[in-house]
């Protein structure tokens, strides 16, 4: 009774905590629904109604609810449920190293940095670790014996901790700490900028062990604005500017080079380079006035290896930079500037801004007034003194905002940026400068954008699949177990309440894969109850009273439940550790769900059941239709294992051949690239769209980039993938691709659709409803982490089975079955990815599915092994084969019920859960089916073959008695 009382108290306290955490979510949703009912689709009216309703409070006695506070505390929804933007920023660590070395020009340093840039593309090690590896290797190969504490490296005034005799290992630790601190500074700057964007419930986190920062902003729509705000370093630089007479001879040389070698420069030989420049139309201190449509061609020429080799001495280090935006007088062109560089490309003035504000010049044009810090002010004074009467370029992230002539020296660090700003653009710039500078440049290496309409559809489909799955479980478990099933359902409802409450209290984000994790948790809860009730039925059939049967049922089921839950939990831990984004959400909900299932389905359910039984009331554990199902079922599984071996061997060989010959369709998670889900107002043919786009996406050498268009969900929606400009992670590259997409799809869009509307389609509009970008370095990390995750899961499961069952034969059988299941799933994806009407890419979601299947399959295997272990103690006179057959046959009811209910649940998610989950759930369907099969015919069979001594007789009787009868004949 004491145990029962403690469990009741814990359940009540936990329930009250969850209720308190979930109330703000309920209240915020209630207010928003009221506002929507009044305002409809009018956003201005909606905001006014929200402001009006926000003044109300709800007094519940123990707490008061306000909308603004409730909104801050409500459960966080992921992008796939709410829409918004998620970006992964990477701080440029080469810039940080250059800064710490004072932009040294030491050749060993520069070679090591260049080599590190190459190695980093296919490495999971940190940039700085790779840099030190490359530096040591080059230093040793050249025999230079250069020390890291050398004044040309880290032994400078920047790093006062480094002395002339500081050992290399110590210098490495100091540099790593400095770089980690710089990334921490970048994190704080990014967080401040996000606050200025006005995002609701943003999630900003550092990625441990890397120079990456993850930023998630639900509800945000303007991806270009967000990327620009986050990537801008806010490091203002001031450069001397070269004029047309200095670069014109070089341009003439390039014109001749294009005519001779245009193909190797990425343009046609017929291209007239000088004609592209329109130097005669210049009205600024630039060197060319290029039409927007020709800027890509000019970039290809200037950045080509041919052009670099032809540079004369006076422009060897010149940087060609574009203007911030077109001039007001010529909106179709962009000015090209020649900025005087140097060997280390360090700007003459490179300081942060102490303050920035919007102002107006003498012609009432919008400008940005700035005050530089002390260091920048001194450098600015020197530069302006040196260049009176000459132009100086003001740049921000390699864009020229203005390049005026210096009239007088400026001694106080005050200056002004003009750039044909609108009021909004000036405010954005002031916000960026005001938030502080990043210690180095940043780039978006991964980005996901989900439109609000797609988010709402995901919520609707997720809830639909959730409700249907839950209804299926309720109906089935009550049908099969009668009164006991009702208690199982009550425990599951409480379990769900706890899961959502814990998610909310922990400030965790609920995603669509997270909902799938919760649904899978319900299947685990069913499995727990099935194990208990099947064991209770066995005790009842053995003639025990209802009270004794339930006591022994719970007692004997506990080991199997703990083993099964532990293996699934270990798999979820691996997923959480190696996964990213939504996969972490799936793993997190699964871990919370497994823990709560143990509490509700074992402890709380036991307390409720025995509270009833101790009052002398009965509790059925079957219905008339299910009472004797599987009761007397016995199958000679071991005797038939050779047929199973042949079947599995043939299937495995077919799968391996398909994998070797057909391969897979890899998602951009593993290859890098960009995905766009585009919605149309009428049916479209994927093949026709693909043909249109292939012609537009050509690389510098004139070859077509990979482009794939596939129907996604329905005939009015396509998923378009491309690796065009895969190495270019800049905002400009994103805009170029979106422009090309728009051009290629324009004829299929409603008349009058603009590029802006196309890029952020909402509700019933045609255009991009979601997009995803994965840089090649991130793709390598995801792929390698996926492999590590699978290997780690198999190793952990092998060790756990070995520890629990004390026989390596069981571990071998379990891992062999898991390998078998994984190969079958991989083979199915290799064979079918071209034919199925839904996404069958190999990506991180697929890895999650594989690991989840492994967790489920081992759970099933453990139940059988647990019964074998029990019979090894109790039925010593039975042959090993008979013992295995008895064990498998006696657990058939549990195997069928668990597999059947799980498959029904997964089918519900597969059919109603939305397009993004179909590939994931298909892998689960295959895995659950073959996981059940392999638990019996692979894991158990292999364990038997390695356990047998060769002396067993051939009697495969059902029981010891049967064997004795057969043996006496």
**Biggest sheet strand line-up:** 5-6-4-17-22-19-21-20
- Average pLDDT score: 80
The CATH architecture of the largest domain would be Up-down Bundle
Kindly identify the CATH topology of the largest domain: Multidrug efflux transporter AcrB transmembrane fold
Largest sheet geometry? 8 strands, antiparallel
Q: What name goes with the CATH superfamily of the largest domain?
A: Multidrug efflux transporter AcrB transmembrane domain
Low-confidence stretches: 953-957, 959-969
Principal-axis shape equals elongated
Overview of the structural elements:
- Helix content is 58%, strand content 13%.
- Residues 953-957 and 959-969 have low confidence and may be disordered.
- It has 969 residues and is α+β, with helices and mostly antiparallel strands.
- The protein folds into 5 domains: 4-74, no CATH class; 87-230, no CATH class; 234-437, Gyrase A, domain 2, CATH 3.30.1360.200; 451-658 and 780-947, Up-down Bundle (Multidrug efflux transporter AcrB transmembrane fold), CATH 1.20.1640.10; 673-774.
- Strands 5-6-4-17-22-19-21-20 form an 8-stranded antiparallel β-sheet. A 5-stranded mixed β-barrel has the order 7-10-9-15-14. A 3-stranded antiparallel β-sheet has the order 12-13-16.
